Amino acid sequence: MEAFFSHLKEEWFRIQKPESLHAFHSGLTAYLDWWNTTRIQQRLDYLSPDEYRAQQSAIA
């Protein structure tokens, strides 16, 4: 969990620097969607979650 927050701060918050609550909320929502679908994860053998799910579906 700590690693996630570290990545969140480094990959999104320090780069985006949202200036309003709306910008913060919409940017965070987009980042979480990207994290949960597209971002390559070491624990998934360097696949994105979507790629990993597709690979597991093909195996089953």
Automatic annotation (TrEMBL):
Pfam families documented for this protein: rve_2
InterPro entries on file: Integrase_cat-core, RNaseH-like_sf
GO biological process, one term: DNA integration
Highest taxon, organism lineage: Bacteria
Limits of the Integrase catalytic domain: 2-55
Protein name: Integrase catalytic domain-containing protein
Lineage of source species: Bacteria, Bacillati, Actinomycetota, Actinomycetes, Mycobacteriales
